[in-house]
Amino acid sequence: MEVERVQDISSSSLLNEAIPLEFIRSEKEQPAITTFRGPTPAIPVVDFSDSDEDSVRRAVVKASEEWGLFQVVNHGIPTELIKRLQDVGRRFFELPSSEKESVAKPEDSKDIEGYGTKLQKDLESKKAWVDHLFHRIWPPSCVNYRFWPKNPPEYREVNEEYAVHVKKLSETLLGILSEGLGLKRDALKEGLGGDTTEYMMKINYYPPCPRPDLALGVPAHTDLSGITLLVPNEVPGLQVFKDDHWFDAEYIPSAVIVHIGDQILRLSNGKYKNVLHRTTVDKEKTRMSWPVFVEPHREMIVGPLPELIGDDNPPMFKYFAFKDYSYRKLNKLPLD
Fold it and tell me: How many CA atoms lie within 13 A of 187 on its CB side?
C-alpha cells in the first residue's frame, strides 16, 4: 500500500490554502488557541565555555530538575559540521520521491528505522504534519546502512563524523547528571546500557502548512530516550509545556537543545523531569530538526537505579525492557 507523504500533501494543500481534516487538531491542541502569548520565561542556556565548571554542572542539574530541557552553547560540536549535517539532510528531503522511498521503512518492520510518516497511534486518528527519517548512528555494531541515504554522496561521512561528537557531548552530560544524583560519573551511562547504548538519528521534515493555526508538526509528547540532543534549522517551532502553558522556545544558532527523556526520569526515580514538548509548523517555510535519541538497546531492563532506592525513597516506576516500554507507550497502553 502506497503511503501518502506530508511533503506531497503540502504541495497540493498550498494551492487551495486548506488542509485535510485528519490534520486539523481539536481546540484543546490547536496552536493558535493554546500557545501562551504573554512574557515567555527563558529556557535555560548553559555555556560550556564557562571556566567555572561547578557553575556549568549546577546549571545542567537545575535545568534538568525544573525544565527537563536546556540549550547548550559552545558545546564542542563544530558549527561547520552542524551546517554540513543540515545540508545533507535537507538535500535528501529535496530528492524525488522515488529516491527517498528507496530507504523507506518496510511495512512489516517492527523497528522504526527508515524514511516514513506515521510513527505512533493517535487516539483521535489525527495525523502530524511531518515526514521523517530514522537510522542508528552508534554503536557500529547496530548501524544498518540500508536506511542511510546514498544521495547526497557525503551523507554517510558527515553522519559518522557527527556521531563521534554527539556521543562525546552526550557522555559529558550523562556524567554531570549522574554526579547530580550523588552517584559515580558513569552511573546513568551504565543504566542506559554502557557501551551498548544506541544513538538513533532522526530527521524531522515539516513542510509549509497553509493552516499552521490548526495543525501540529508533532503533538505533545515526552521522548522515549534517555536524553535527546537536537539541532534545528532557523525556522522556529519547538514549544515546551511548563506551568500549565505552552511556551515557544527561542532559536539560538548552533545551540544543541537537550531534552531529558523518559528513561532518565525513570533511572533518576523522578529527580530529573522528562520534558513535555510539541512542534508547530510555518505557513511559508520548511522547518527541520535533527534529534539524536540516546537510548537503551531493546532488551535492556530500565528502572530506578538501585543506589537511589531505599525505605525512605521507594521506586516510583516499574522496571521494563526498553522494547516493551516503547511498544506500550507508542500504542498508548498503561505503563504502571
Answer: 19
Closest CA to 180 of 95, 251, 268, 239: 268
Q: What is the pLDDT of residues 242-265, one digit of tens each?
A: 999 999 999 999 999 999 999 999
pTM assigned to the model: 0.96
Per the CB < 8 A criterion, the answer to whether 193 and 300 are in contact is: yes
Q: Which three cell numbers stand for residue 94?
A: 529535496
For every residue of 51-95, which 3-state class applies, written as one string? CCHHHHHHHHHHHHHHCCEEEEECCCCCHHHHHHHHHHHHHHHCC
Place of cell 552526550: 170
For 105-121, what is each residue's pLDDT tens digit?
998 888 899 999 876 55
Nearest to 214 by CA among 310, 280, 294: 280
Which position has the grid cell 506551568?
243
* C-alpha closest to that of 217 among 275, 276, 277, 279: 279
> In this structure, what are the phi and psi dihedrals at residue 93, rounded to the nearest 5 degrees?
-70, -15
CB atoms inside a 10 Å sphere around CB 20 = 12
For the record, the C-alpha cell of 213 comes out as: 493555526
Sheet with 277-279: list strands edge to edge.
Answer: 218-221, 277-279, 238-242, 245-248
Query: Active-site positions?
Result: 202, 221, 223, 277
For residues 46 and 55, give the distance between their C-alpha atoms in angstroms, rounded to a whole number.
Answer: 9
Is the backbone peptide bond immediately before 152 cis, with ω within 30 degrees of 0?
Answer: yes
